[in-house]
């Protein structure tokens, strides 16, 4: 066991920090503490690479000498955080599942309003109108990362980007891509002064998505899983486009549609590719 005063061995399932971490599976717990959970050493390292250290680091005590754990522990302690060395039972309790990953870390969520969006920061941004599914949200953050998007804007009443499911689906990209949150009114205000194209995707649109009128920076707008984009948001778009479909499906899954649209209108350059 480490000599550091902020490294503790915890075996009690009723330990207060264990309870606090377990509460981060619920939106209420995350709101109250301002923290969120990331599972796995790889995701925690992704955070470190993006200049973010965990406030609380939990790892299996048998893995305390692993290089990756040493690196995470050093960063956590340097930033004033605390480390818990735990056994299988405590890890499972915190992760709320059997066979959890051997590292779990709690990070502080930074809430960013739309006023902080800098359109000059990137070629493309993604806005999601009332996204409901955290798996879709995390997958979209990951895809936004892959195309070098400047951020994902969450409009209106959305699922929580800091949920365990969203963070898991983002595969660490949640630490690389800024997520902004705001109301529909805030979004309409931003769209009205957006310096480039605001491209909405909508099933009723009659224009092919690859023929969208594109002026950088592009703000790609995606609709809610059930209802699509609101009329007000559709009216704020400079162009409305549709991805062609055949067959019986009446729409694409939101995360799939976002990936197709993002690559169709803002595919990144990769000079290493033949
Ligand atoms: N019933 C909803 C509707 O009428 O809009 C379906 C919503 S769809 C599951 C969720 C979002 O994915 C849509 O609002 C749109 O942004 C995007 N989407 C899905 N399929 C699309 C397509 N073929 N063309 C354009 N956008 C699409």
From TrEMBL:
- What's in the keyword line of the UniProt record? Methyltransferase, Transferase
Cross-referenced Pfam families: MRM3-like_sub_bind, SpoU_methylase
Record's Gene3D superfamilies? 3.30.1330.30, 3.40.1280.10
Q: Which GO terms describe its biological process?
A: methylation; RNA processing
Annotated GO MF terms: RNA binding; RNA methyltransferase activity
| Superkingdom of origin | Bacteria
Instruction: Identify the residues that the record assigns to the RNA 2-O ribose methyltransferase substrate binding domain, covering every copy.
Output: 37-113
Show the GO cellular component annotation of the record.
cytoplasm
| Family membership | Belongs to the class IV-like SAM-binding methyltransferase superfamily. RNA methyltransferase TrmH family.
Q: Which PANTHER family match?
A: RRNA METHYLTRANSFERASE 3 (PTHR43191), RRNA METHYLTRANSFERASE 3, MITOCHONDRIAL (PTHR43191:SF2)
Q: What is this protein called?
A: RNA methyltransferase
